[in-house]
What we know:
Shape: elongated
Helix content: 55-70%
Protein name: CoxF protein
Low-confidence stretches: none
Mean pLDDT: 91
Number of helices: 1
Largest sheet: none
Strand content: under 5%
Transmembrane segments: 20-41
Keywords: Membrane, Transmembrane, Transmembrane helix
Distance between the termini: 59 Å
Amino acid sequence: MVERIELTDRQKRARRLRSIALAFALAALVVIFYIATIVKFGPAILDRAF
């Protein structure tokens, strides 16, 4: 049988804060890649054919 470990309130809070920090870091990385792509292509990105 699997023994369950109960986290303390302090551990739950630390886990939540880590998750939030990781989400912000991932969002920042997405924004950096997006901006880098726009800067790399420059105005030429608007001249593409559909």
